[in-house]
Design goal:
Elements: H1 6-25, H2 30-39, H3 44-64, H4 67-71, H5 75-78, H6 81-97, H7 100-129, H8 138-157, H9 162-172, H10 178-202, H11 208-232, H12 234-258
Helix pairs in contact: 1-2, 1-3, 1-11, 2-3, 3-10, 3-11, 6-8, 6-10, 7-9, 7-12, 8-9, 8-10, 9-10, 11-12
């Protein structure tokens, strides 16, 4: 593990602060926190696990803001949390068993994939608002449960971009209230990342000095940085995140080729 000198700690805190602010407004903060840890010297697997555990506390406060929307959701939709948790632990187990060299090679493509998902979020949300037909028959719910398991699998393995996948699934089920959909998305995402974080901690996969510093940074960013992010506008924040995503993917791809 790299030594936790002042510069390392400051960069880790700043990345988590920015990630927390971005998550409170537009989502996609992992595209900042995870690659930063790799550039600070952590292995890709450790960086992924550390980022998941460190950013999770900031997501709790975001979920709290949507508690009313989740409480008003039909119970059968809330039950999708079960395949979410099952997929999350399966993805964490898969990450644990992935050879580090293979994950190093996958990381730039995972970041690119997550960036493209992030780019699709606004168009999908606009499309969701125009859907009015409800499809909540048992067969639709079963299909949504299977889909949600694989979303959880991806989320436990890497995590960035799962929100847009869940919005798509909820729209197929006929939900039209974007606030309710965002509430469920946050609830399921919190469950997926929470179970994965517990496994990463139990397996000793995280770098604790960075976890503690970044958890404080993420909470502070979600609380203090959100105001600044809102002032520059959601569209500007999204463009910044997309730019960071592409830049990080390219830089990590070059780094992998040189190694």
């Amino acid at each position: 593990m790299p030594p936790l000198d002042f510069l390392h700690a400051a960069v880790a805190f700043a990345a988590a602060f920015v990630a927390g602010a971005i998550n409170s407004v537009a989502g996609g903060g992992t595209l900042v926190s995870f690659p930063t840890l790799i550039w600070l010297g952590l292995s890709s697997v450790t960086a992924n696990a550390t980022s998941t555990v460190a950013i999770w506390p900031g997501a709790v406060s975001s979920m709290f803001g949507y508690r009313r929307e989740v409480r008003s959701t039909p119970p059968r939709l809330v039950l999708l949390v079960l395949p979410s948790i099952a997929g999350g632990i399966a993805g964490a187990l898969l990450l644990r068993r992935t050879p580090p060299a293979l994950f190093d090679a996958l990381v730039p493509f995972l970041i690119l994939f997550a960036t493209f998902l992030f780019m699709a979020q606004d168009p999908v949300q606009r499309r969701m608002k125009r859907i009015h037909a409800a499809h909540q028959s048992p067969s639709w719910l079963a299909g949504a449960g299977i889909f949600q398991f694989f979303v959880g699998l991806y989320g436990g393995y890497f995590g960035a971009g799962i929100g847009i996948l869940m919005l798509a699934a909820l729209s197929i089920l006929g939900l039209t209230d974007i606030h309710q959909m965002n509430g469920l998305k946050n609830f399921f995402g919190l469950s997926i990342n929470g179970i994965a974080a517990l496994y990463f901690v139990w397996s000793g996969m995280v770098y604790w000095p960075d976890v503690l510093i970044m958890a404080i940074g993420a909470i502070a960013g979600g609380y203090l940085g959100a105001g600044a992010a809102r002032r520059i506008g959601r569209s500007a924040v999204r463009r910044i995140v997309i730019g960071i995503g592409f830049a990080m993917a390219l830089s990590l791809f070059v780094k992998f080729l040189r190694s």
